[in-house]
Amino acid sequence: MRIDELAGHFGVSLATMHRDLDQLVERRLLRKERGRAAPFPTLTMETATRFRVGVNLAVKEALCAAVADEIRPGSTLVLDDSTTVFPLAARIARTEAVTVVTNSLGVARLFDETPGADVTLLGGRYRGEFGSCVGPEVLRALGRIHADVAVMSAVSVLGGRLFHPIRDYAEIKEAMLDCAERSLLLVDHTKFGKSATHAYSDIARYDRVVTDRGAPAGELAALRRRGVTVDVVDA
């Protein structure tokens, strides 16, 4: 895609767009050539949070609405740093007294004015482009957490396996799965049929997967063959 078109799509300057793309080039997640940006074949890249937060927002809100009734007052909830869970965090912040554990500064800030919420922000090495912390400190902290529910998203889902282009985040998602009694995966249709560098879990570890009607039938069939509860929502 043309870099000037990307800048216009995300509402940023051309210089800002080039700087963000240069970071992805350094991580070998894409290449720049003659004013265009292109991902390497079969790989999925993770873009900065500010670019993702407004993408497919109606779908994200529908996915979150579908699982809102699973969050009980007084429960302990683990949320990852995916923008897909932001609408759920915002909904809970308006209504519920809960304990929230997250590595996402954006998620934590949604509870700034929720006096009944007890928020634990997992600290570690801060990744500014993603607004979240990674590293062994986060993993150790999650090892001491016992949560009622973990709600996460995924960058890539292929054949019932989950993938992430960045190892640190793949490890955190595994740790979040390990610390929760019940795990929910919210993924829109754009996440299916792709792989990335680091495989981190079989989707059968999740108790419930929620997606939208654009999800490929073959991928959904693969999930159900693994015994996964799959809910498809309108958005």
Describe the fold and architecture.
- By secondary structure, this protein is an alpha/beta fold.
- It has helices spanning about 5-10, 15-25, 50, 55-65, 85-95, 105-110, 135-140, 165-180, 215-225, and strands spanning about 30-35, 35-40, 75-80, 100, 120, 125, 130-135, 145-150, 155-160, 160-165, 180-185, 200, 210, 230-235.
- It has a seven-stranded parallel sheet with strand order 5-4-3-8-11-13-14, sandwiched between helices.
- Helix 6 links the parallel strand 4 (about 100) and strand 5 (about 120).
- The longest helix has 13 residues, at about 15-25.
- Mean pLDDT is about 90; it is low at about 40-45.
- One of its GO terms (molecular function) is DNA-binding transcription factor activity.
- Pfam families: DeoRC, HTH_DeoR.
- This is Lactose phosphotransferase system repressor.
